[in-house]
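Schema walkthrough. Field components (list of strings):
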Amino acid sequence: EPEVTQTPSHQVTQMGQEVILRCVPISNHLYFYWYRQILGQKVEFLVSFYNNEISEKSEIFDDQFSVERPDGSNFTLKIRSTKLEDSAMYFCASGIKVNQETQYFGPGTRLLVL
Amino acid sequence: DAKTTQPTSMDCAEGRAANLPCNHSTISGNEYVYWYRQIHSQGPQYIIHGLKNNETNEMASLIITEDRKSSTLILPHATLRDTAVYYCIVSLWGGKLIFGQGTELSVKP
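Field assembly_structure (string):
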């Protein structure tokens, strides 16, 4: 069964450093998402991406964040200058069509900012 | 965005049916009800979704009331591996999922 994969599984970085989180969505999916979950808190929507552009973003997704689909298979989330409060589990998800599609989530990348 | 209300926690005996309720009284006509679950800190796992009619798949059944203001997820024969946090989510325009706190289901031997 096709799965969403994410790399790395864990990332430790220093405050102020840039990080790139990578995702490989399910191959025939058209819609891509990033969510995050701070330890002990709810899963929060960050951004959705379709047709090579952002379709929606939350208030969390400020100028320090960017997303890209560089080669038709990978989907990346970049945090330009990490803060301590960016420490969280980051989940990528993909879906076939908007609004009534089912989103399938990856296993997540645990980011720790020191 | 329509919001949902779920009990914080529930227990269920292994082998018995687990019935997880959800209230979504402000749901609009074109919004679907989705159920996901999360085991430990793994990625949320899709379970089932529906609009008006009851739905069943290999994992669960979804019962939606006629007025669509509430629904129940049924796991027909709960196992220890079904211990997880279960999220009832009403779909929004654009496809984003808004997660609440969910129901922590403990399946006990």
